[in-house]
Amino acid sequence: MSAVPALSDSGDAPSPESLKQVPGRNVPRCVKWLTFIAVAGVALAEGPGNTALDNTVALLRSPNFKVRAQAALVLGVQKDVNRVIRPLMGALADDNRAVRAAAAMALGRLGELCAVGPLARVALDPDRTVAEIARRSTETLVAAFLATRGRDTGRHYVLDVARLGNDAELKDRVAERLLAHPRIEVGATMAFDESEGPLAVELELRADVTVSDSAGRVRLVLGLPSGRVLSELDTVAVTGPNRESVLDALARGLERQILAFLGR
């Protein structure tokens, strides 16, 4: 396992290349200690009560930015993903750029797909290094998501329908149908907090919609909250005796497409 990169006293975010470097002798003692945990502490975190893991999570609230950043990197090599994922997503909103970069690196290493949405937003960070690290981690998770999509893996999803065309009636019908399925929520995005509840993959539904009293046509795109396109689905085209039947048929068609993409 490679060592965790040291941080400078200036608070600079570690570069992607620094991930391959071992901290030198001038690293502060607290950082050396945390680096040791990153190399050997996985076993400690698996001990009785996971006290070491709890202590490392607590270090994300340290007043020292270097301790917070190193703690984030340590958490990125833990096996108990459910214990560390929420604290790391919270660290993406840290005031210090080095901590945000470290959290983005850690989330990319963990491989948990629910981090795709938060990471995609951090990819817009004003700090170029933080944004680049977040983009790399996002692409790693997106590749994993696309490789496993189409299989029902028990994941939870939060689907944002705000950009699903301009027809409010169609949005309501699609949302109602999706909410009838387990492990699917319809709304905006998860907050950067450590609230309880299942971890979910955030997806945004975007579409060009044309509806008349006798026909309807929708071209659906699934993407991330950042705008990153994941898939452009086939166009749904229907006809009907009236607007109500057209809307129902479109909603059913979109429901089938979305569920097929998710592996349901």
Structural topology:
Elements: H1 29-45, H2 51-58, H3 65-75, H4 81-91, H5 97-110, H6 116-122, H7 128-148, E1 156-164, H8 168-179, E2 184-186, E3 200-211, E4 215-223, E5 229-232, E6 236-239, H9 243-262
Parallel strand pairs: 1-2, 1-3
Antiparallel strand pairs: 3-4, 4-5, 4-6
Helix pairs in contact: 1-3, 3-5, 4-5, 5-7, 6-7, 8-9
Written overview of the protein:
The protein is α/β, with parallel strands linked by helices and 264 residues long. The chain has 2 domains: 16-147, Leucine-rich Repeat Variant (Alpha Horseshoe), CATH 1.25.10; 156-262, 2-Layer Sandwich (Double Stranded RNA Binding Domain). The protein is 46% helix and 16% strand. It has 9 helices and 6 strands. It has helices at 29-45, 51-58, 65-75, 81-91, 97-110, 116-122, 128-148, 168-179, 243-262; strands at 156-164, 184-186, 200-211, 215-223, 229-232, 236-239. Strands 1, 2, 3, 4, 5 and 6 form a 6-stranded mixed beta sheet that branches. The radius of gyration is 22 Å and the shape is elongated. Mean pLDDT is 80; it is low at 1-11, 13-48 and 189-194.
